[in-house]
Amino acid sequence: MRRRAFIGGSAALAGGLAAAPAAAQGAVEVSFFYPVAVGGPITRIIDGLAADFEKENAGIKVKPIYAGTYQETIVKALTAHKSGTPPVTSVLLSSDMFTLIDEDAIVPFDELMKGPDDAAWIKSFYPAFMFNSQTGGRTWGIPFQRSTIVLYWNKELFKEAGLDPEKPPATWDEQVAMAAKLTKRDAGGNVSQWGIQVPSSGFPYWLFQGFTTQNGVDLMNQAGDATYFDAPEVVQALQYWVDLSRKHKVQPPGIIEWGTTPKDFFERKTAMMWTTTGNLTNVRSNAKFPFGVAMLPAGKRRGSPTGGGNFYVFKKSAPEQREAALKFIKWITTPERAAQWGIDTGYVAVRPDAWETPAMKKYVEGFPAAAVARDQLPHAVAELSTHENQRVTKALNDGLQAALTGTKSPEQAMKDAQAEAVRILRPYKK
């Protein structure tokens, strides 16, 4: 796997010392870029966790900096890195791993760990979440707010349509058939309720990976230097997505907004939606009707990409800052805190032992839907991640939106996206 060589040892530490900010009152300051991209009182929770950590660790000050969406946060983090004043740590997309390595911006956790306890900690996370966290025999990211895509459905609307409210679609064919029964039109053909919405803005590539995984095909290789956007199975998956609107007419035409899809679900404008498990608490708080959560329907197989954010530690931080950051990351990912974070936000608790805590057991007993994403992990695949990931992802997103708006056929859209990805990744091929 090609990537820039890691510059370790004294040279890296010397560079980090020069960039260390003055710590208030002698405390080691850990600046912490955090992306706010999903609804809910996330900033309040993060502020509370930072304050609790500081109470237990008097010599460390954690400074959360809310940096916008994931895309905005990585731009700000890399800009700060190039100017010599990056955050000490940041939560960024797990799929940004190759980009951060290529920019020589982060240190592998292997360089920070000491002894068997730290090694055991690395092994405590779900293997599915490590697909986008490790490469080349090193661990570059630590899972924190991770997710899969799941299907939410309105049980009342299922019942009104004569469907079993406890039985969501389990296959692609059932998804279309149920969505057809759930779509309401007046005599003039105007739709007041759609059967399903799969968002195509914000993270279209990620939602699309649900379809491609279910059709038995990967979008990229493990080395992050090749994509398969024009494979026949990829084109078939896109055709299925396009057909939901154009052929079956059970989904709104054109681009469906990521941010407003949950609102459409709350307002009964759509009976089913695909979105992140990170919206689970948001849905539970705002849906004024009984709802269900299910694994995504199967095509040739079940499946979803993992998603969400990892902790990374930036190279241009001082040794004591890195040590403090590691302490904070280990603290915030303990089984009890991983469980509480999952309960408070809807993200998937990232380690199996978190699900064995009394708090999580009680939560799942009262709200079984919380365990759906966990149960989907054996079917999960790595999120799309390559070198030059932002550019490669944009090529795919542009192709998806061209097909969904009808400006290109699925075949042509994927052929063009693949050609652009090949051009971008050429320098990284061995």
UniProtKB/TrEMBL annotation:
Pfam family, one: SBP_bac_8
Subcellular location: Periplasm
Gene3D superfamilies: Periplasmic binding protein-like II
Domain of life: Bacteria
Leader peptide range in chain numbering: 1-24
InterPro entries per record: Bact_solute-bd_prot1, SBP, TAT_signal
Keyword Signal: yes
Keywords: Periplasm, Signal
Family (UniProt): Belongs to the bacterial solute-binding protein 1 family.
Name of protein: ABC transporter substrate-binding protein
Organism: Vineibacter terrae
